């Protein structure tokens, strides 16, 4: 298992795949254990790195993870098989906004796909969240750029930062969810329904 993880880290570095930061995955694994999370939905698989690490938090965790890029999807399937986790991780090849999840629900939804679509993911996937569950969004600091918007030269990047700021505002003003922002890794947002007060490890 450790070899598979190390090889994925090497591959991600060599191929510019933005995998989750060490502190962030530690935070999420701790959350999974403390709250006895069993069903996870991940939006944005890349090569399966975070899916595999979440599945190793404890052995009754099942992950469904969605990836729209063909090459990354195939790399993820290969890695899941090599990690011996194909019985607990299902990799779905599709655009997350086109996936039909009718009849499914999750204890943890991890949003880590296109930063331009964060609000769309949140609006769609909140309908599949179990009572007591949370939605965690990664890269809320966008590599530190959210704090340094004035210095960004690329218009595209500035627009993405604007999108992330809009999303933060949307979460802060959400009537149904409370969101806490964590300065962990590249920034995590943890959102839970207002009546769910017994969630552990997020204070
Ligand atoms: N969660 C991974 C990293 C994901 S990187 C990890 O930490 O290991 C983000 C991925 O989301 C990219 O591979 C990209 O192809 C994918 N993606 C972006 N928008 C998507 C969408 N709408 N549906 C499915 N996948 C998407
Ligand atoms: Mg990420």
Question: Which secondary structure elements does this structure contain, and how are they paired or packed?
Answer:
Elements: H1 2-14, H2 22-34, E1 39-43, H3 49-55, E2 62-67, H4 70-82, E3 89-93, E4 106-111, H5 118-125, E5 129-137, H6 155-172, E6 177-182, E7 188-193
Parallel strand pairs: 1-2, 1-4, 2-3, 4-5
Antiparallel strand pairs: 5-7, 6-7
The structure holds S-adenosyl-L-homocysteine and magnesium ion.
Magnesium ion (MG) is lined by residues 18, 20, 112, 138-139.
Description of the molecule:
With 203 residues, this protein is an alpha/beta fold. The chain has six helices and seven strands. Strands 3-2-1-4-5-7-6 form a seven-stranded mixed β-sheet, with helices on both faces. It is globular and about 45 Å long. The two termini are 31 Å apart. The mean pLDDT is 95.
Let me know the largest β-sheet. 7 strands, mixed
Q: Into how many domains do the coordinates divide?
A: 1
How far is the N terminus from the C terminus? 31 Å
Highest-level CATH class? Alpha Beta
Instruction: Give the helix level as a range of percent.
Output: 25-40%
Shape annotation: globular
Query: What is the β-strand count?
Result: 7
Topology order in helix (H) and strand (E) letters: HHEHEHEEHEHEE
CATH architecture: 3-Layer(aba) Sandwich
Could you say what the CATH topology is called?
Rossmann fold
Q: Kindly provide the radius of gyration, computed on alpha-carbon positions and rounded to a whole number of angstroms.
A: 16 Å
Count of helices? 6
Query: Structural class from helices and strands?
Result: alpha/beta
Which strand-content bin applies to the residues?
15-25%
Mean pLDDT: 95
Strand arrangement across the biggest beta sheet: 3-2-1-4-5-7-6
CATH superfamily: Vaccinia Virus protein VP39
């Amino acid at each position: 298992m450790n070899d598979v993880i190390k090889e994925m880290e090497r591959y991600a570095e060599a191929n510019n795949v933005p995998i989750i930061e060490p502190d962030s995955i530690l935070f999420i694994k701790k959350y999974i254990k403390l709250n006895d999370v069993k069903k996870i939905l991940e939006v944005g698989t890349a090569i399966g790195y975070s899916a595999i690490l979440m599945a190793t938090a404890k052995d009754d965790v099942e992950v469904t993870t969605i990836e729209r890029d063909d090459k990354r999807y195939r790399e993820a399937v290969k890695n899941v098989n090599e990690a011996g986790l194909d019985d607990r991780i299902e990799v779905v090849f599709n655009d997350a906004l086109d996936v039909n999840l009718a009849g499914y629900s999750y204890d943890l939804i991890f949003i880590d796909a296109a930063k331009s679509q964060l609000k769309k993911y949140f609006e769609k996937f909140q309908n599949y969240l179990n009572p007591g569950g949370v939605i965690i969004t990664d890269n809320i600091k966008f590599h530190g750029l959210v704090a340094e918007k004035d210095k960004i030269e690329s218009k595209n990047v500035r627009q993405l930062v604007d999108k992330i700021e809009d999303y933060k505002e949307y979460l802060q003003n959400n009537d149904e969810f409370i969101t806490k922002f964590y300065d962990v890794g590249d920034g995590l947002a943890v959102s839970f329904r207002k009546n769910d007060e017994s969630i552990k490890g997020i204070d």
